[in-house]
Structure formats: C-alpha cells, structure tokens
Amino acid sequence: QVQLVESGGGLVQPGGSLRLSCAASRSIFSINAMGWYRRTPGNQRELVATIATAGRTNYAEFVKGRFTISRDNAKNTVLLQMNSLKPEDSAVYYCNTWPRPQDAWGQGTQVTVSS
C-alpha cells in the first residue's frame, strides 16, 4: 500500500481559497486514479474529485466549477485547488486511490470555512 500524507488545510473565510496537497510514499504513476475525499462530523466520507493517470478528471456536483484536482506523477503528489469556499465545505479532506480506496488512509487535513 501507498502511504499518503495530506496537508494544506486551515481556516479560511467564505469565498476564500486553499490548496491541498497529498504526498505519496512511492510512485503513483502506476495507480490508475487518485481521489480526494472529505468527511464532516457525523457523516460518511464522500468523494470530492478524481483524476486518472492520463489526467482525466471528475468532480462531485457540489464542487464543480470551484475545485480543481491535479497530479504530478514525477513528484508523487496530488493537489486540490479549492476556490470560492463555502461553510459547507468544512471537513477533513483525504486523498486515496479510486475507485477502490486502500484500507490505509492518511490523517487527513482539516479545512474550516468560517467568518
């Protein structure tokens, strides 16, 4: 399995931006697709965005037009640029493989959108 370390979260005002980063412990080039997920207190983890090796992306409806996922296979990183953040985007964000997340999740990174 690949160890994943998320970073970049923080406190931001509504309408603000954050960029999340996911560092993998080994090459992710051979991994077909990676995804960003999030979980709010009391809720299940939900899929936010995915990116395939070739770069094809997909987004959940609730982030379309606001979030952008990208990957740098040479640096073994997956990024999530989040713009126009809303309070309902507050959650712990995780990256993992997709469509079948590996059992080992990272610690996630907390995003709080509040004025």
Keywords:
115 residues; mainly beta; 4-stranded antiparallel sheet
Number of helices: 0
Structural class: mainly beta
Q: Biggest β-sheet, characterized? A: 6 strands, mixed
Distance between the termini: 39 Å
Count of DSSP E strands? 10
Helix content, binned percent:
under 10%
> What is the strand arrangement across the widest sheet?
2-10-9-4-5-6
Radius of gyration, rounded? 13 Å
Strand content: over 45%
Mean pLDDT score, rounded? Answer: 92
What oligomeric state do the depicted chains represent?
Answer: single chain
Name the helix and strand elements from N-terminus to C-terminus, one letter apiece: EEEEEEEEEE
Shape assignment: globular
Question: Could you list the spans in which at least 5 consecutive residues all have pLDDT below 50?
Answer: none
Explained architecture:
This protein has strands at residues 4-7, 10-12, 18-24, 33-39, 46-52, 57-59, 67-72, 77-82, 91-97, 109-113. The protein is an all-beta fold. The strands form two sheets. Strands 2-10-9-4-5-6 form a six-stranded mixed sheet, with no helix packed on it. It is globular, with a radius of gyration of 13 Å. The model has no long low-confidence stretch (mean pLDDT 92).
Record the SSE blueprint.
Blueprint: E1 4-7, E2 10-12, E3 18-24, E4 33-39, E5 46-52, E6 57-59, E7 67-72, E8 77-82, E9 91-97, E10 109-113
State the gist of this model.
The protein is an all-beta fold. The chain contains no helices and ten strands.
